Amino acid sequence: MTPKELEELENTYLDEFHHFLLFAKRRILRGLNTKETIRNDWEDKWSPDSGERRSEFDIGAERIIYAFFNTQGFGIPNSTPVGSDMFFETEDAFIHIDMKTVQTRNIGDYTTSIFVGQNQNSYSSDYSVRSKGGLVTRSYSGNLPSYYNVNGNMKPCLTYFLTILYEELDNAPKFKVLNINILCMPNGDLVSQYGARVFKAGKNPDKVRFNFSEVEDFELLNDPKPKRIRIAYFNEDMDEQWKTKLKYLKGVYDEQRF
Amino acid sequence: MYAKDTLFEGFRSANDLRDQWENNWEAEYVQGAERIVYSFFNSQGFGKHNSNPVSSDLFFQTEDAFIHIDLKTTLTTNKPDLSPKHDIEQNQSSYQGPIIINSSQSNIFKAQLPTHYKTTNPKNQTLPCLTYFVVIIFEKDTFEVPCMYITCVPNGLLKKYMEIEFLVQEKEKISMQDLIGKIVNILNF
Q1: Which residues pair with B107 in a beta bridge?
Q2: What is the mean pLDDT of chain B?
Q3: Fewer C-beta neighbours within 10 Å, C or N terminus of chain A?
Q4: Which CATH topology does B4-188 take?
Q5: Distance to chain A for B134, nearest Cα, Å
Q6: Which residues of chain B lie closer than 8 angstroms to A151, CB-CB?
Q7: Strands A229-234 and B48-49, sheet pairing
Q8: B83 at the A interface (CB within 8 A)?
């Protein structure tokens, strides 16, 4: 498969996932809210301060989103233990999809890049980090192969991230979804095209972030180049302070054409 | 039973790619098995998924119940007798009872789930809370599954009818005791 063919395939599946999210958006948002109907039965048992670091939104959101995807029959789930939460095989690819939820108090971790796990991508590259002594080079290697070899049949490994930004509220439902995106991180074989731009330093030396705003297009495809980032939901009714911080994503949203 | 072959094929699906992930494997199997089992349940339309954070991994509402299902995996090397016993957590049970250590009661297992849920929207309903576990015992080297079973932990209101106590403590975890023929359905042995 040539690099361009690889990008065409990445784009084809991104189109599918994006359109599915647009199609199911209203039901997904309702699904995220279903805990409200029985809030009185669980609220006093939810104690995130006692060792549970996640918010009451995160756990339920994963259940709802993954359930929606699983009903679509996109592919055959695979039991490989090194992979994203969703990992399935289609006729022409192996596809990893992981979900990232971020609340507005960490909005800086969301607007132009997103944290990724080593078991969720196939991209490897050196990249530069600014430190007190100047620029330092770090190496990163994703744990996934660029292609899976199934008895001699090579299928590319494609990586997607579904990202959700939400605001915590004082009163039930205690959250407001501001934005839902689906992103495609380049396959490792595209390193000659994207180089180190894919990465931004993470909090620790062994962690990286997918710097999606720096690789926003499928660069090998014909003009107008499709975006590697697609907006499935942008809540126009959000506080101006968040809208200002989401300036980049709002721009992508406004330019989206179908 | 009807989906057993499909599930088992799913459990083995990692084998075709084993040389491409084994070097990065940290010996946890549960993520791969969860992917197979949960995607299967999700695709069946058993009910409407609910986003309640105090629950098992799968949690959905049907016409007449709220249902929790969680998956437990263990290696054959950890359970050579394939005994039907598995961990249970507070947010996965409405059954509250004594925990037995060395044949004597030591503490109370405080379940976090209600015996019934009372819905507020779209209408007021009182629906029972049912809790199930799918347990998979697997071979580490082949992902073959010599034993898989599903258990139904009694609803908390049934405590007075239970003749035996079934919560035991092993290390830091609470487990269900052997109850073959009572609440365990063996799917494969």
Answers
A1: B99
A2: 82
A3: C
A4: ECO RV Endonuclease; Chain A (3.40.600)
A5: 16
A6: 16
A7: unpaired
A8: no
Please determine, for the modelled complex, whether the ipTM score is greater than 0.90.
no
CA separation for the pair B70, B90 (Å, rounded): 12
CATH of domain A3-255: 3.40.600.20
Per domain, the residue ranges of chain A are: 3-255
Side chain identity, residue B82? L
Give me the amino acid identity at B165.
E
- Say yes or no: A143 contacts chain B, CB-CB below 8 A: yes
**What does pTM read for this prediction?**
0.91
Q: What is the pLDDT of residues B43-61, one digit of tens each?
A: 998 999 999 999 999 999 9
- Binary contact (B38, A66; C-beta < 8 A): yes
Give the SS3 label for residue A168. Answer: strand
- Measure the CA dihedral B179/B180/B185/B188, to 10°: 130
Q: Cα(A117)–Cα(A161) distance, rounded to whole angstroms?
A: 11
Using CA atoms, how far apart are residues A257 and A208, in angstroms rounded to an integer?
31
Residue positions counted in chain A: 258
- Nearest-CA neighbor of B106 among B152, B163, B165, B183? B165
**Where are the domains positioned within chain B?**
4-188
Q: What distance in Å separates the CA atoms of residue B114 and residue B91, rounded to the nearest whole number?
A: 10
Residues B40, B6 contacting (CB under 8 angstroms):
yes
Q: Give the burial class of B92: count Cβ atoms within 10 A of its Cβ; 0-12 exposed, 13-18 middle, 19 or more buried.
A: buried
